[in-house]
Amino acid sequence: MQMTFNVAEAAEYCKCHPETIREHIRAGRLKASKPGRSYCITKSALDAFLTDLENARLQASLESRSEEKCRFTNETMAYGMLTSQRKAAAEFDSLLALKTVKKPKGCMTN
pTM value? Predict the structure, then answer.
């Protein structure tokens, strides 16, 4: 027979508040049965929930780390200054653009 927990015991096992366990059950993240008025949670369901929770936290930390790395890969060194590729491209475009002389408005030329 499998070991089972009520909400208070599951909260103690997970080191969290009992209401947190109830919220996870209601959201469907933690599998539990309700034979009467209280929830019944198996140890295997609790271990699977904790494993999923840890994997989600790990994935979130890896995603935030990869975003930090990607943010810095767009920057390069140019003449000793750190500039982004976008800024450098805009500066080169402005330097290579044709210089045109604007005619004043309201003047007539022959």
Answer: 0.54
